Every structure is written in C-alpha cells, then in structure tokens.
Amino acid sequence: MMLSSKKLAAQLVWLSCLLAVASGQGDACFDERSSKYFSKNDWKYCQQLEPNLFMYYAPLVEDQGGNVMLGLHATSDTTGWTALALAGNGGMKGASQIVVRRDNDNGNGNDNDNTDWVAEDRYSTDYSTPLMDESQDVKLLFADQTDEGETAWGVLLMINPCDEPFDYPIEDKSTYMHWAAGSDHTFSFHGNKRGQFHANLFQAPQVVPSTEGLDYIDFVMPNVPVVVGEGGTDPTNPYICGFFDLDEIYAGSGHSSQDKIHAIHMTPVIAETSKKYVHHQILYECSFGGADSQFDDDDDDATPVDVDNLQHLQIVPECESMPPNCWEMKYGWAVGGQDIILPDDVGIPFGEGKRWLALQVHYYNPNLDEGVTDSSGVRVYISPEVRSQDAAIMEFDSGTVAYQRPPMPMGVANYELPPFVVPSSCTSSVWNQPLNILGVFHHLHRLGRQMELVVERDGQNLGPLRKEFGYDFNHQTIEESPFKELLPGDQIVVKCSYDTTSATKNVSFGELTQDEMCYGGVLYYPRQQDDLFHYYPPQANPSSCSAPGTGEWANVSRCAQAFSESVPKFFDYEMPFDFDAVTMCNADWFESEVGWFFDDICPTCQATQNCTVEEVATHAQEDFCVRWCSENANLSLYPDLSRTDPHDTGAWGCPNELFKAPVPLDPPVCETIGDLSLEIPESAAGNRTDDDLVSESFSGADGVFSSPVPSILSATTLILLFTASF
C-alpha cells in the first residue's frame, strides 16, 4: 500500500507530542577534551544538546544516597553563567533551574577553585528572572571556565527534596528540560542562548526508529482562507473543518476503509507562513449511520453537513461545533507539539469500517490580518502490519462549554474550579483491564494556572498523573507519566485553577480562546469501548423538587409551578423572549424546536395544540417533574419527601451518571530521597589526573545519544505533546 505520493488535506488537532531528545556524537561525549572533566566510569550517560553542548548525568541508587549527578560541558562560546532546568513543559512557567556561575568574578578564568563558583537552586513562575529557592537543594561538585569559552561543571541533586512547587522530583521517565547561558556571570536575561529537550535522568537517551520505507498519509488543509465562516461567533477565532475520505485515499492501493491500519508515528506539518495563527488542530473519526448515508441529527448545535454529497477534501468554513458523530479523536496538535511515536506493539487504529475523518482547526487571528491561508496538518506513518494493541485517547472533560460551569469571577489570583470526580464505581465498570499509560495532556486557555488528574486508589491519594507546576498556554504538551498503569476501580479527580486578575469581565467556559476550559486526557492502551468522561451539573433545582408551589400553585410542587410559568427560566436558557409551558405546548414550532429533544415534556393534548394551563400543570406534576427530579438529582417530587438528599455531581460516560461527589483525599505525604552530604569519588568531581585519563579508553559510555531525533514513545520513554482544543 503505497500512499506516500498522495498529499491529502486533513486536520488533526489534538495530540501531537513527543519529546525531542538532544543529539550527540558518541565519540565527542568522552573524547580527550571532555574526559578531563567527566569520567565515563563515574558519569554513566551523556546527551548532546547542541553541536558544542553536552549534558552528563548519573543516577546514584538509594544505597549511594538517592542522588543524581548532573553536569554540563560547553566546548566553546560560553563566557558567563550556564544553567539546566527541569520543567513540566517547554516553557519557563513552573520550571526549576540549576544555575552555575561565579559569585564574584576575579578574572582568573582558568581557576578551578570552587570557592569562586556557586550553584544556585532557582525557580520561575513566569517569563521573568527565576527566583532563588529558599531551600537550596543542590551541591556544587566542580566548575571551570577557560578564556577560550569552554565551560564545565557538575552538581549533585537529590532525587526528591520534597520542595514542590519549587523543585521537581527526578523520576524514571522522560522529562522536559531546558538549558540556557548568559553573556557574563551576573544572572540576567539569556537572550537567544537557550533551548529545550527531553531526557530521562535514570536511563540512557533513546534512539527513535527510522521512518524510512514506511507508507504515510499527509493530512493537510488545502490552503484554506483563515476567515470565520457564516454563522461563526467570533471573527478572531475561526474554526474550519476539512473532510477526508479513506476510500479516496486508498484508491488504487487494493485497500478500503473496511480495512484496519495502525498509525505508529505522527509528525505535525505546520505551515511556516501561517503558524502563528494555528491555535490547535484535532483529527476526528466519524461514525455515520447506516452505510454512511447520513449524519444522526440528535445534536441541534452540531454543524450540519450533507453526507450524501460529501466530498473528499471538502471544507466546512464554519465548524465551531463538530458535525454529529465526528467525535472520536485520533490525533491532536497545539503550539509546541512534536512527533508522536508509539511502542513496537501499539498503534492508533484507522479504518475498521469508518470511512470519513474530519480535521477541525482552530485559528486565532486577534488583529484580523487579511489574506491569511493555511495548509497545516499532520503526516501519519503506517505500520506495514497491524499491531497487537490499539491505542486511544481517554478524555476527562471538566469544563469546555458554558452549561457545565458558571462564569468565573474576574480579579481572582487563584480561582480553583470545584473538582470533577470520576468515581471508583465508574471505572470498575467501564474499564475491563489495567490500562497502560503512554502520555498525559492538560488543556486550559490563557488564564489557566495549573491542572492535575489525580489518582485515588484503595482509599489513598497517589498523586497526579503528571506534574506541571505552571500551566503554559503556549507550551501544551503530552508528557510521560510516572504512573505506568490505571486500574479498574481507580478514582480520577480533575482539578483546575486560574488567574483571572487580568480579566475585565467574568470568564465563561467555552470554545473561544478568550473563554476558558478544563480538559485533560491520557493516551493509553488497550483501547476501551467507553473513554470519554464529561462533567455535567445536575439540572434539577433541589429546592424546586422538595417544596410546594406558592400562591395559586400551592397544590403542586415548585418544579411544576416554575415549569408552567416560564420554560426558559426553568431550564436557565437565555432567550430573546419569555414564554410559559402552555404557549410552548400549543405552538407550531414545538416539535422542531423542543419535542425532538425532550420526550413527553407536554401532555397528549399537544398533538392537537389545545392544551389548557391545568392540563399542562397536571402533566408537569404527575409526569415531567417526577422524571426531571429523579433523573437529574435523584430526588423525589413534593409531596413525596422520601428522597431529599440530592446527588450533586454527574459524569457522562459512567453507568450511574449522577452521584454524590466523593470528598477528595489529602495528597500523599512526600518522602525525601537523597542526601547531599554524602561524598562522591574525586574523579567525578572534575579532579581528573593524567593517570585517570590514561586508564580509560575513549570508546564511549553506556549511554550515548548520537542522532538529532525525538525519543521513542514507550511505556517508560514516551513523551507526547497534546494540545486539545475544542
């Protein structure tokens, strides 16, 4: 199946990721120049970050103190301070920096005297000068800088100093890291001397498998105008969809959309001329009814599409809400997203009888620049054979549309959204086996501070699936988790916080960039039948279910009264006009606007449009409100007071969608790992004698990374970048 010659327009928005691990020349890591500082016997691993920049590291197991040695060697072009950082994403927010510099430069550049040098433990909360950590959890081993611009240093770090949110623990997983260098030893802005990479400080750098010879499909937008379509709500936020027909793509290959294929490597294709406008892109698989003859039309807000006449590469210029049945995410990208590479036995399935894919791209054009077109998308590499495991994306939607959450107040530095809980009783029912975790993503908008997907198991809080001390809208990534599995019966608690001090009005939840979201997920395998969990608040008002009406309505419940008097107010809908229930039930527009969605909301007299106020009120009391209160809050209806303790939260995707919100458990108590007072061999501290150098060959170390490619996405080394965005 040779598909590589077909350049297909398709948009995939959601999950692009994978850490870029630095490149390196194996011989250069431990050549004669480097080995005067770094012994291959003491410094187990080496990773090349730039042509002239190398990182060395060595984990020391717990009986050796539970520490990690970390070193940096710049062979040229350094005249001041240098730094390495651990981070939760590719940006500075929340990062923990180790800065090595001369405290008082005496001009003796070749002096390897540690009394001149300091190693500083710093942290950053924004794009500003990192602050000094009150707890200095670093020990300088050695430092040197020559007049020729060569710099080398080594430090000792604790595996876990228990200093969150100022220091990240060092975990056996691929982690975002940064490097930076200053022009002198006064700690100040680094300019363009900085970079990002991924590393696992417990393991050798991973080599990614080659894509040479693999078939691939390019799903890219066909140079679409970045202009909001008719019906769009905001000209600065166009949502555009492109449709792709697998049968058209496969034409002439001997395959069809009935076949199953596995995507094993996904590379974002972001057009250079329009990249600043691309907010995110998500590729959805569509499940149309029958033989793909038509969309189900149950969703009144969905973008209408004529499936009978749908064409390959057809563009829908206004696609803020996805068409019905186009909801299964296959791929996503947002700013900072990199390649996704799956383990050897795992693939993301396409086909299986699902012919159509829809790529939704969200653009952000705040200045309404004219003449912008885009041809971004993704290249999907296909496995020659179907693999044994299907990967999928599990979604935790705690707030993406207005009805889920009330507006947040402006002017609050740390507004914490009430947690969304997927209870243990739910996951024990819908997960049929342990789930292997490949990556975790967080998605908020510009006011987001922090997000966590916390795992609670057997009455214990195990901590978040991913640590990201400072959420960064411009660096949304899928990252490897310290958790390797989720188990049936685990309880997932979704937490989000926001800084609304810059807002000029209360902040709504919704799809626009200036709205907010609380949405996260997990790339996992094996695929489960149900993997979307969507928060929704119970719709019934407990006081209206358990109390009598007032005045002339005293013989019915307050629910029946409120429904009879004003339908928009009852459902908390914003309408241009108000109307009561009898007006609705007798209206010509009832069936097209209301009846298709609400079963039996009106009595049978609606069929002849001659209902009276008494008939509608009686129906509300004896039928509609009974169902409404029971289904939406687990309450009985007045005068029946047998159930007055309402269920106060809900999760679509669970067998019992309404339940009492469990009380979140206290976070786990941190256990310190590491001891900086322990001594290490002098040879590891830059004190290298001629005898040391002669006794070692320069054949390389156990871990030397030698090509500028991303790391493999595996159960322990996957690093994904997910930018979900609706």
Outline the structure in words:
The chain has 11 helices and 40 strands. The strands form 7 sheets. Strands 27, 30, 33, 34, 36, 37, 38 and 39 form an 8-stranded mixed beta sheet that branches. Strands 1, 14, 17, 21, 22, 25 and 26 form a 7-stranded mixed beta sheet that branches. A 6-stranded mixed beta sheet has the order 2-20-18-23-16-19. The N terminus and C terminus are likely disordered. With 726 residues, the chain is mainly beta. The chain is globular.
**Which consecutive residue ranges, at least 5 long each, have pLDDT under 50?**
1-25, 106-114, 289-300, 689-726
Q: How many helices in DSSP terms?
A: 11
Write down the overall geometry: globular
Helix content: 10-25%
What is the straight-line distance between the termini? 33 Å
Mean residue pLDDT: 85
Radius of gyration: 29 Å
Q: What is the number of beta strands?
A: 40
The proportion of strand residues reads: 25-35%
